[in-house]
């Protein structure tokens, strides 16, 4: 029994239902009699315990028991997946789905996108079977637009796709690729491909390029997501060189864990022998990192003539000259080892260990076989490992330092300086109580060694203590910084210079200790800058000219000629008496538009345009009231003192003198994307330029062009010759069109020409063409470094490379051999 049924309107058609429940009855009118009770309204039936929370929409739907039949633009939403098909049969109790016609599955943790003709799924177990599949991971689709959610998308295609778990698939009779849709240039084909969140693995696979099978892989693992790495054999590296011969190499890549990986391999030079190589990388939290690289050559030797030297004739052609004694050929070993490691470890927010360690067994090995030009001509090997604690401006530290420099390619013709160790305690300048004074401290205790041909200074102890005070103040635009300090340095061993030249200028070691104490004072005076504005209506610009003068004075007394008795290890040992005054005049030119623009589109308020510094020019010179620096100057020698090293790196003190060279530093950036630097040291005493360096670079669009010019006239110490001049003049042009990884055509060329030797030291050109996911590289390099021991490096090398995006490169184009500017380094200009 029930009350009367209220009047009802037409029932609303239902096109969707949450949780697959029967449609509710629509009630349009309530009963007028308050005593009447409403008819019970149907509520959605809860899903059975074995079912899954799904909902859908479809043009038509029918239900028989717990089986739903959906047809016409069916869309099923399940967790973070979306399933679309023409027709779907859904078993609500078991969460089984049978889909047919234009099947499409999207979503999931890896942004999976699967299209198939038909398939069946078990939603609660994340298992499925799809037929005639085209799919991807890491690609999102918004209509016809593709959005790559990862830099390493995985695209696959197969006759059958089996889903064995969430994110895990097995492709039957299919292929994979990383090329972006819709037309991949390459793919890997296999009968069975195991694909999960980390990698794709397959056996008996073929690599297909532009529809043609090229390589066969018995087993292949390929990363399937961004940041994933796979251990295994890398692609072999064949190449060719006029010095190395034919080169073939192989490397093993080991992904140790999430934070570390390593490459170990070797190359075989057909003319020389085996060359092991490798590198190690570690990246921890924060700034923690370790990077190591090693290269070696087990050289079987190269035949070289002895008893014969080649002397250039007037026409520049080498003419052999026979020396007295036997002549013939001998086997010369030019192999060696070069190991470099750098890293940092933060032990606490205020304490860290950091350093760079390098070992080079033979300078000839670097000269002959280094692939990078700047590395091949570098004659220095430096290692420095330090632990530093810094807190509130107090900095205790300990370091181990090794410096090695090669004078020539002859074994043993080198100098080594060791700090094993050096303990320091420094205090950064800070206020002295409540007074306006500031104080600082530099102190160190060192255990030192130095060795070079026929000179050895071992087991040297050094204590250095340098407290200082400063009173900086600013008044009416004037900046004045007076400073004073005391320095005391104690050496357990000293030296006596060879002033007569009887021992070829090699000092004599004395076991007498040396105590060097001095008083230091300085004054830095900066008057107010002078400026004036000029209007240039023709350019619609306003020019501001600023002149910044600076006057410096420095006094050091108490060292005297004892500076000659100090063993030389680092800048601490080159302190001398000095009484000098210097001036610096810097002119700056700023430019900005005269037309004032509004701050934003919705406001008429004018915004001043920022000034742009488009040129600056600094000239500097010093006058020495004590031309002998307290008797420290040794005539006809290169004398490098602390007071002169602050002015220029070019040695100019070869005799007592009162006036330093004139230093000029010019920077020009008036034109957008154009930068010019010109540094010059002019010596008025000799009437010549000591150093002249010019660099200019211009960039427009994808093209960068530039040139560098370096000239040096340095003192060349040679016993018996009155201070001859060592000359060098090199021009280095470069050109880049595009980037090595840019799509389309890209070109790079650079080189270096030596005007003193009248030869090209280095030259290289590299052309790259990249399309969707492939690239081809061709290049040529030439080394002509002149004499290396009894031979010379005259090497020609052809470069080639074939690159597959997100897969690898076949060829010998690497970061060290590329002609393009390394993107890991600072900009070229």
Alpha-carbon Rg, integer: 38 Å
The rounded distance between the terminal residues' Cα atoms is 94 Å
Major beta sheet, specifics?
26 strands, antiparallel, barrel
- Count the beta strands: 53
On the 0 to 100 scale, the average pLDDT is 84
Tally of contiguous helical segments? 3
Secondary-structure-derived class:
mainly beta
- Share in β-strands: over 45%
Unreliable sequence segments: 1-51, 144-151, 311-318
- Tell the overall outline: globular
Binned, the helix content reads under 10%
Describe this protein's structure.
This protein has 829 residues and is mainly β. 2% of the residues lie in helices and 60% in strands. The chain has 3 helices and 53 strands. It has a 26-stranded antiparallel β-barrel. Strands 1, 2, 3, 4, 5, 6, 7, 8, 11, 12, 13, 14 and 15 form a 13-stranded antiparallel beta sheet that branches. Strand 18 and strand 19 form a beta hairpin. The longest helix has 7 residues, at 363-369. The radius of gyration is 38 Å and the shape is globular. The relative contact order is 0.05.
